[in-house]
Write a structure and sequence with these properties.
The chain has seven helices and 13 strands. By secondary structure, it is of the alpha+beta class. The strands form four sheets. It has a four-stranded antiparallel sheet, with helices on one face. The chain has a four-stranded antiparallel sheet with strand order 5-4-3-9. The chain has a three-stranded antiparallel sheet with strand order 7-6-8, with no helix packed on it.
Length: 353
Amino acid sequence: MPPKPPPTPLTHFLCLPLATPTSIPSLQTSLSRFSQDKAILPTPAPPTPSGATSKPSASASPPSPDSPLTDTEDDHAGGNAFLPPKAIRPVGTLHLTLGVMSLHEKSRVEAAVAFLGGLDLRGMMREAETEAEQKRGEGGGEGKAEGREGGEKVESRAGEDRTPAAAAAAVTGMATGLGAVVSGEEGGGEIKGQSFLGSGEGGRRGQGQRAMSLSLTLCGLHAMGASKVKTSSLYAEPCDESGRLYPFCRRLREAFEAAGFVMPEKRELKLHATILNTIYASEKKGKGGGRGKGRGKREGSLKFDATELMERWRDVVWAEVKVERVVVCEMGAKEDESGWVRYVEVGGVDMPC
């Protein structure tokens, strides 16, 4: 039997960026709090000069008594932390992937960008609205989590099933203000029902804005793959009370697949915003076998049991995002001169408003 051909290297992807001028403050706050979870290893302190002793800063503010993270240091000290901080994705990299591409020639990249520029996004939005209205008429209701099509159930407490519609209803209640606790459960280091939306976000959209603008709420924490007890990646789910996000994104992907730019997928589109992936914390193995930060293939990702971490963050609202652009990006996030880590856009178009 002839050897299997190597997989086609992926070079670009089509996506909706989630780090926008209005969403970045909320995302930064949310990821900062997440980095302090008792499952995340503390970032090593900078080395102190020889002979000096490290003292706590006198200007440091003590944690709030009702802060869900007041037990973080004790848990770290007790050895319960196990996830490397580098596994948490930088704010600038957050996005919803619609499809991946293998474009190795400049002309192909330019053709993909030109194709995107020629799409009728306004028409796609109208079609998505029509599909959403039909589903609402069939009893699907509004406000379902838009990670996948259909009435997929969301994991919850033992003995309790929460449909996406119920999850979105909880999100609507959570998004009323910063730090609003709606689950009725406080203390014990729990994060349930907490919103990290900035003070300028979270308001209800006017009916006139719904015609074309598209907004979503990133909520909860879910495991990628079949098992939450042995996973390497966690994501937030996009919740869209209008029901238009998924059909709009599906149409975009189908158009790019039909044009031969996006690689065909047998699986249905799964919208997700990766919050943590241990593959990014693994070392790279260079061509000569050495380890380092240079080019090379990353070694295997750490598998872990995410059950408790998901439970603590299952009702959290990470941010409310108004989708502003559809873009084609290069694979591999890069750090710019200011230290901001993001994917390089090779082209994009503004969303209709």
